Amino acid sequence: MRFRATVENIPIFFREFLAFQAQLLPSLAGLGIIQAIEKLQKKCIIKFTEDEMHIICNDDANEGGIQVWSYVLSHKDDPLLDLRSNAENKITVSLSTEALLSALRSSSASASSSSIAAAILPMHEGDELVMKLAKKNDQAVLSFEMFGVTRSGRKVRVAHDVRIDVMRPSEVDKLREPLCPEPDVTILLPQLQKMRTIVERLRPLSDVLALRANNSGKLQLAISTDTVKLETQWVGCPNPSMRQVSDETVAELEENPDPDKLFFVHVSIRSFIKFLNSHVVSTTTIACICQNHCAILYVYIGDVADAGGVLTFYIPTIIDDA
């Protein structure tokens, strides 16, 4: 088994969890996708292939049952990895999101001021970060190595190992995305950061959030308790088509669809806020509502037509037995 990659842009690796080849180009992208995943789950599954990297959070113990199934593509003109394994050149590992975040911070020249490596060994642009699969003391690790030059001109090497568990092919075969019905409505969400500000204010008032939308561009976020009822509404949101069935089948299922009919799901407000943490990577986010079943939320990394990857959040509905 062999695995080696060169990380092109550590801050964007924070954001997109991917970039292999060329030189580092510092940016203010922040902690991005890794930070969002770390807030969701303490361990995640990463599947490396020659063309894609998949990040999976499917722990049943997650707040509100939320799951994330995502992928990030390689650069079109360059191979993603030098990767060889007996499982069709695919390697799937389980690791601590907190440890991974710490490794990337310590390797980054533009990490936060809390990063010891950034404080002691400030780097110039043009440094290289190599990530590879290794075995140390009979323990599999992802080894991150930073090679660079300090501002004083001294060459340095910073290394950080993250313990991992390499999954067997039989375990990988059991990984399955949630099965969901055809969405009742699909709608383009407003900026997630603005939505997050609103939902954060609703959180102290209720544990359950109603997400409603129709096929005329109306979107609503609402809470309802014995003591308070609040609703925020957007209008004019586009309704992109993401149906996976033919138009004829849709016509049979919906002879006279009412575009003003609101479809809804009730979800854990804490789960929804964890989804909204992905605002740091989102350029476009599309929500699909499967009434009485779940909300499916697609966070695109880059423009939809040329997206570098997609984070797919599944948030199951909360059934009110009252």
Shape: elongated
From N to C, what is the helix and strand string? EHHEEEEEHHEEEHEHEEEHEHEEE
Strand content: 35-45%
Q: What is the terminal separation in angstroms?
A: 54 Å
Q: Please identify the structural class as seen in this structure.
A: alpha+beta
- Spatial ordering of strands, largest sheet: 5-1-7-8-9-6-2-3-4-17-16-15-10
Radius of gyration based on Cα positions: 21 Å
Helix % is 10-25%
Number of DSSP strand runs: 17
| Count of individual helical segments | 8
Average pLDDT rating: 77
Q: Which consecutive residue ranges, at least 5 long each, have pLDDT under 50?
A: 8-31, 109-126
Largest sheet, strands/sense/barrel: 13 strands, antiparallel
Topology:
Layout lengths: L1 E6 L2 H7 L15 H9 L2 E6 L3 E6 L9 E7 L8 E3 L6 E6 H11 L8 H5 L7 E9 L2 E11 L5 E12 L2 H4 L12 E4 L3 H11 L5 E6 L5 E6 L4 E6 L12 H7 L9 E6 H8 L7 E7 L3 E8 L7 E8 L6
Antiparallel strand pairs: 1-5, 1-7, 2-3, 2-6, 3-4, 4-17, 6-9, 7-8, 8-9, 10-15, 11-12, 11-14, 12-13, 15-16, 16-17
Structure description:
The chain contains eight helices and 17 strands. It has about 325 residues and is α+β, with helices and mostly antiparallel strands. Helix 1 crosses helix 2, helix 2 packs antiparallel against helix 3 and helix 6 runs antiparallel to helix 8. The longest helix has 11 residues. The protein starts with a strand and ends in a 6-residue tail after the last strand.
